[in-house]
Amino acid sequence: NIAIDEHNWIVPRYQASSVTVSMTVTEQGVPTDLKVVDSEDPLLNRAVLDAVANYRFAPASLDSKPTAVPLVLTVHVVPN
């Protein structure tokens, strides 16, 4: 499960764009080691990384114990 927040970025948007981020989600559900792996609009990269850094996830489990896992997430940014 992902806790999704709405973010309002003050960047003029004329078309939808996507930014794909790789990360590790810790045993506590905190994203770490965030890196942009694909981006349709480099002007959005910093804002997306900042937003994703504040996301909180339900931790994965292995043998009923929380465990860190790699994750790739694509964030779609649409114009207002």
Low-confidence stretches: none
Give the end-to-end Cα distance, rounded to a whole number of Å: 26 Å
Largest sheet: 3 strands, antiparallel
Rg, Cα atoms, Å: 14 Å
Count of β-strands: 5
Tally the helices: what do you get? 1
How much of the residues is beta strand, in percent?
35-45%
Q: Which descriptor suits the 3D outline?
A: elongated
Judged by helices, strands and strand pairing, the structural class is mainly beta
Strand order of the largest sheet: 2-1-5
**What's the helix-strand series?**
EEHEEE
- Share in helix: 10-25%
- Overall pLDDT, averaged? 86
What's the short story on this structure?
The chain contains 1 helix and 5 strands; from the N terminus they run ββαβββ.
Can you characterise this structure?
The longest helix has 9 residues, at 45-53. The two termini are 26 Å apart. The protein is mostly beta strands and 80 residues long. The chain is elongated and about 45 Å long. The chain is built from one helix and five strands, in the order E-E-H-E-E-E. Strands 2-1-5 form a three-stranded antiparallel sheet, with helices on one face. A two-stranded antiparallel sheet has the order 3-4.
